[in-house]
Design brief:
Layout (H helix, E strand, L loop, with lengths): L1 H18 L1 H4 L9 H24 L1 H4 L13 H27 L12 H16 L1 H4 L5 H5 L13 H29 L5 H30 L9 H8 L13 H22 L7 H9 L1
Helix pairs in contact: 1-3, 1-5, 1-6, 1-9, 3-5, 3-9, 6-10, 6-12, 9-12, 10-12
């Protein structure tokens, strides 16, 4: 989707730099590094073309139904879309690279450079999750504008869902494999690195989630109209839709959508890193060899 690809492309560049931090800290020129070359190839050969395909195949869904028929789209839109899908990835890579280089003389790199891709993914999840009714709409813009309603489960049998699955066959391994290799061979190479990595990432995930949740909650409270004839408890109960916050029509459903998206997306992002073996301390290794 156009709205989320802005943050997705940035996060791809940032995470490719972050996972190869072990080698980047000693590189004075970032554009000659293998991970940057791979970032360019990934963005230009896989990510940008996939976005253009979705925009042309289903412009309504790809634009979260802000656009209609593809014949109404000016040629500049796909041009800018493809350009930003690569440019923002480069920016994400460069920003993370600069943060890594800042601590190049440190014995241990602080894991704070992971905040860039994590916060970008949080923005990604905020748009995707809060707009879940648009993301999971199984039909085209004609049905959307006609206000045709579908159950959420209909998305999983829709054409767009199977298109995304087919694209994932190429995109997911292309993103997972290099991250796993770089983390294993270059970045998480000292005892305790993997634990520091996960603790830092959890901190930034919770930070972003709490901020988005607080902003959304403040917006809901600010726009809620209290009934002067009701008690404080009754007004609070009404604020939370009389307990029906799980209903799709609830004012709180976008926030729940964000939480679900954040949980699911972050799990998928971290999946390859779970399998990176932890480096044992010298004492543990010596004991193991003795036994």
């Amino acid at each position: 989707m156009i709205e989320v690809d802005v943050f997705w492309s940035f996060s791809f560049g940032a995470i490719f730099a972050a996972t190869s931090a072990g080698s980047l800290k000693d590189e004075a020129v970032f554009w000659l590094t293998p991970s940057f070359v791979y970032t360019l190839l990934f963005l230009s050969l896989i990510f940008a073309p996939s976005g253009l395909y979705l925009l042309w195949d289903n412009p309504g869904w790809e634009s979260m139904f802000l656009l209609g028929d593809k014949n109404d789209i000016h040629a500049l839109l796909p041009t800018i879309f493809a350009f930003t899908n690569v440019l923002l990835g480069i920016i994400g890579y460069y920003v993370t690279y600069c943060k890594i280089r800042k601590y190049r003389t440190s014995a241990k790199l602080p894991m704070s450079y992971h905040k860039y891709w994590i916060h970008a993914y949080t923005c990604f999840c905020a748009i995707l999750g809060m707009g879940y009714s648009r993301f999971m709409y199984p039909s085209d813009y004609v049905a959307w504008r006609a206000d045709v309603q579908y159950p959420l489960t209909a998305f999983f049998t829709s054409r767009i869902f199977f298109t995304l699955l087919a694209m994932g066959v190429v995109l997911i391994p292309a993103a997972y494999i290099p991250c796993f290799i770089w983390m294993k061979n270059q970045t998480l190479t000292a005892p305790g690195d993997k634990s520091r990595f996960f603790l830092t990432c959890i901190h930034f995930i919770l930070q972003g989630t709490c901020l988005v949740s607080a902003l959304f909650g403040a917006y809901i409270v600010r726009n809620h109209e209290n009934d002067p004839s009701n008690s404080i408890v009754a007004n609070l109960w009404q604020l939370f839709d009389n307990g029906n916050i799980l209903d799709r029509e609830s004012k709180w459903s976008p926030l729940l959508g964000f939480w679900v998206a954040e949980t699911a997306v972050m799990f998928l992002v971290f999946l390859p890193i779970f399998f990176v073996p932890s480096v044992k301390t010298a004492a543990v290794q010596k004991t193991t060899k003795t036994q």
